[in-house]
Amino acid sequence: MSDLTIVEQSVRSVLKYNHDLTLLQCTSSYPTPDNEVQLNVIRTYQRMFPNIKIGFSGHDQGTPLTLAAVAMGCVVIERHVTLDKEMKGSDHIASLDMSELAMLVRDIRRIDSAMGTGIKRIQPSEQTFMKKLGKRLVFKHSFEKGSKITPKDVMAKVSFKTADDVPLTDTEWEFRELQSDVVQNENVKIFHFRSVSESSDSSG
């Protein structure tokens, strides 16, 4: 039950004496309507207080919004737990039962595992699929030996990986001369073209 000014003043006051502080975003109503949960305040706290732990205290129903908070980087989660949601008291209806708690713990662990390192790289499980589902450069049409091929004559398409495939990003050239016949949708290979030195010698 605070606005940002109160939160900032409180945090600054505590940090004067204790840096072991965790700040949780929370809306104190039971249950909290989804549009008042204000998950983006988590981002605000992370920017304003980069040196303390940020978490989420949820009074919304179910687990999806808590899982979203975890995915946003919250390192502490607080949820109420009840044995019966129909018991007397304002917070029972917004609490998790034991099965929901178990599901929440399981899913948080999945999210933690799925977050990864932040470095984009080909994953081990992708290796097998890359051979048959990865994109390669292929010829748009059939061409005869000696044809002048430009980047407009090739396209990226799902195709089996083969030896000597031209890299998918290799399209920064004006034209290349074929030294063998090729057929439509055939993978573009390094040996399909005359080398730069060969082309220069023949033109000179």
Explain what the structure shows.
It is a single chain. The chain is of the alpha/beta class. The protein has 2 domains: 4-114, Alpha-Beta Barrel (TIM Barrel); 125-203, Alpha-Beta Complex (Type Iii Antifreeze Protein Isoform Hplc 12). 30% of the residues lie in helices and 14% in strands. It contains 6 helices and 7 strands. The chain has helices at 4-15, 40-48, 64-71, 98-114, 127-133, 196-203, and strands at 22-26, 53-58, 76-79, 135-139, 148-149, 154-158, 176-177. It has a 3-stranded parallel beta sheet with strand order 1-2-3. A two-stranded antiparallel sheet has the order 4-6. α3 (64-71) packs parallel to α4. It is elongated and about 85 Å long.
Please summarize what this structure is.
The protein is α/β, with parallel strands linked by helices and 204 residues long. It contains 6 helices and 7 strands, in the order αβαβαβααββββα. It has 2 domains: 4-114, Alpha-Beta Barrel (TIM Barrel), CATH 3.20.20; 125-203, Type Iii Antifreeze Protein Isoform Hplc 12 (Alpha-Beta Complex).
CATH class of the largest domain: Alpha Beta
| Percentage of residues assigned to helices | 25-40%
Count, helices: 6
Class by SSE composition: alpha/beta
Shape: elongated
Structural domain tally = 2
CATH architecture of the largest domain: Alpha-Beta Barrel
Q: Give, in order, the helices and strands.
A: HEHEHEHHEEEEH
The CATH superfamily of the largest domain is identified as Aldolase class I
Mean pLDDT across the residues is 90
**Topology, number of strands:** 7
Strand order of the largest sheet: 1-2-3
Hey, roughly how much beta strand do the residues contain?
Answer: 5-15%
End-to-end Cα distance: 81 Å
Major sheet size, sense and barrel closure: 3 strands, parallel
Could you say what the CATH topology of the largest domain is called? TIM Barrel
Low-confidence stretches: 196-204
